[in-house]
Amino acid sequence: MTRNAVVLLSGGLDSATCLAIARAEGFAVHTMAFRYGQRHAVELTAADRIASTLGAASHTVVDIDLRAFGGSALTSDIDVPKDRDLDNQDEEIPITYVPARNTIFLSFALAKAEVLEAADIFIGVNALDYSGYPDCRPDYIAAYEKMANLATRAGVTGATHLKIHTPLIDLTKAEIITRGTALGVDYGQTISCYDPDPEGRACGHCDSCLLRAKGFTEADVPDPTRYQD
Predict the structure, then answer these.
(1) How high is the pLDDT of residue 91?
(2) Mean pLDDT per 10-residue segment, the chain (229 residues)
(3) Could you tell me the strand order of the sheet in which 4-8 lies?
(4) Which one of 82, 171, 182, 187 counts the least CB within 10 Å of its CB?
């Protein structure tokens, strides 16, 4: 019997690769994206396209409004940092971090998993080539998984033991791209930029764009990203 899994799908490079990995492992994947007031909401079009192309069993877009809290360049009227030196970052968490975003997203995925009687959630967090977000670290994922098994009917009754899969967490961006390319991911369908134009073209200068471009260069894979300039 094919097992169900919930996959968090942003429309970006990492989550598309994560989806492809879940499919390759034999799961029936149910993808979940969020319209949360992000300035780069064009990623939702990419998420819908990727879910269809990679054979998701279902695709859900959840509406929440994190602009109510602000505190991030992605949900407030704050400039997105551009052309930062990512090789010489200090310890400060960048302003593109959205407070509690992964905790909120995982909570929705957890509810979906319970309804599906699924024991598996996939999230494309990465602890190597990333922007320094605290909710992308292995100890955070481990703590959330422990909490999830204490906080759900399925976990408490022993019906399922929830596993949060993080197949990209120890990979470089180049390794992620190499893995996804082997699985047939069309990265031209993905959007990673924090500040794209209305047509979905990437700025080429935000942290996410810089990390993405670096990954394609190091993987020796042609970069299919549409840039503004």
Answers:
(1) 65
(2) 94 97 98 94 94 97 95 94 77 86 96 95 86 85 95 82 95 96 97 93 95 96 94
(3) 58-63, 28-35, 4-8, 120-122, 163-165
(4) 182
pTM of the prediction? 0.94
Question: Which residue do the tokens 């596993």 mark?
Answer: 163
Which distant-in-sequence residues (6+ apart) come within 8 Å of 181 by Cβ?
187, 219, 221
Q: Are 112 and 32 in contact (CB under 8 A)?
A: yes
Please report the DSSP string for 51-117 in residue order: HHHTT-SEEEEEE--GGGT--STTTSS-PPP-S--GGG--SPPPTTPPTTHHHHHHHHHHHHHHHHT
Q: What distance separates the 2 farthest-apart alpha carbons in the chain?
A: 55
Element holding 162 (H helix, E strand): none
Domains along the sequence of the chain with CATH:
4-219 (3.40.50.620)
pLDDT value at residue 130: 62
